[in-house]
Design goal:
With 270 residues, the protein is of the alpha+beta class. It is 41% helix and 20% strand.
């Protein structure tokens, strides 16, 4: 399968100029002046690529807590990390690359970890909440008590866009004369189908979930589940659903893949 990301020029200056945070369709903002859909989007990104943990530095008796969001990039940090940083109030640092391509938004400061946890908590999955709770307990901190979000359709779409921005992929495969577009989202779990995949399927209204299966991976030894859709009409509707909130890189990939198939179909019909 060929991903469609090669059509984007990922130079650092270009990336920074293209970072965008779409406004909420309702113009809604919470008391901090942050768009609700921006926070839902950021929670989706964190559900896909975020982590919280603690470690014991050599020579110290107390553990250090850290929070991070990871994303691969070419030529500089990906726009997604800058957009995530902006959505949570401009806090945290962006580091990288590690292994030549992997960048991260990251912080070890309690005030940052606590603030980001509180901002994203209403939209986070149970798995990520549990991870944040464990990390907080190990350093004697508490986690938010804010209520769950009452999900509006726009918040659900924004969360789904962030989740796909962080973890999803789209590509074209098959016979060049009759190519097929495929969108997919992997998630690892040892407790059955992840809630995030079920939530995403509800948000986009299409696709199926398969698994579990064991996939060689340097990141996890857990069984892997996957959401996937290949029906072209469904994909067009899914992309339109995510479009108002999707990050520039993933949106460019989605549009490029769909346009490639449209061009082939147009040539065949002429």
């Amino acid at each position: 399968m060929a991903e469609c990301g090669g059509l984007l020029s990922l130079y650092r200056g270009f990336l920074l100029s293209r970072v965008r945070i779409p406004p909420s369709p309702q113009g809604a903002a919470d008391i901090r002046g942050v768009s609700i859909t921006d926070l839902a989007w950021a929670a989706g990104v964190y559900d896909g690529e975020g982590s919280a943990s603690t470690y014991l530095p050599k020579g110290r008796k107390s553990r250090v807590r850290q929070i991070a969001v990871y994303q691969g990039g070419e030529g500089g940090p990906p726009p997604l990390l800058y957009r995530f940083q902006a959505a949570v109030g401009g806090i945290g640092l962006i580091h990288g690359p590690a292994r030549g391509y992997l960048y991260q938004w990251h912080s070890k400061r309690h005030v940052v970890v606590d603030a980001v946890s509180e901002l994203l908590w209403p939209w986070l999955s149970d798995a990520k909440r549990s991870q944040l709770q464990r990390a907080a307990a190990e350093v004697g901190r508490s986690t938010p008590t804010v209520p769950d979000a009452r999900w509006s359709p726009d918040e659900l779409a924004a969360w789904a866009a962030g989740f796909f921005d962080g973890e999803g992929s789209i590509g074209v495969y098959g016979n060049p004369r009759s190519p097929v577009v495929s969108m997919s989202l992997p998630q690892s779990s040892d407790a059955g189908v992840p809630d995030t995949l079920q939530r995403f399927r509800v948000a986009v209204g299409a696709g199926g979930i398969s698994g579990p299966r064991m996939v060689p991976s340097p990141w996890t030894k857990l069984p892997q589940f996957s959401w996937k859709s290949q029906a072209f009409g469904d994909l067009e509707r899914i992309v339109d659903r995510l479009r108002p909130y999707s990050d520039v890189v993933k949106l460019g990939q989605m549009d490029a893949c769909l346009e490639r198939v449209r061009d082939v179909r147009a040539r065949r019909a002429s």
